[in-house]
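It is worth pausing here to work through a concrete case rather than discussing structure prediction in the abstract. The textbook approach is simple: state the sequence, then state the predicted structure, then interpret. We follow exactly that order.
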Amino acid sequence: MNITGDTSEASVFSKGCPSRRVLLDVTGRWGILVLAALHQGESRFGVLRRHIEGISEKMLSHTLQLLRRDGLVLRHVDDSTPPRVTYALTALGRTVAVPAVELVTLLEGRVEQFERARDAYEECTPCADAHLGSVGRPA
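Step two, the predicted structure:
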């Protein structure tokens, strides 16, 4: 069953559906940031790594490999010395990147609301959790 309840189509709610694997790759810790960065235009590895603060070389390489496997990212190697490698979104990748960028923009525009919500939660949590044991169950 998909998100609309139709059982004849792919469904991210089905553990065996390939769309779930792509969803996890795209929405994983770094996937959405790589898509958003490449939505701005093709880029070399080092430029991507500097643009996405906090991502390690290993994780960027892994994320690019996953997104390439899913058909969202292209890797182009120029025939030069040394070889110049660039990454870009495929047509499918551009389609997926649009809502990803919209989500990023939405989140960036609501930072103050998120901070207020977190502050309110932190103020209330010690009181609300006082009756819980160490494993999060009522004492």
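Step three, interpretation. The first helix runs from residue 18 to 27. Helices lie at 18-27, 31-39, 45-51, 57-69, 91-109, 111-128.
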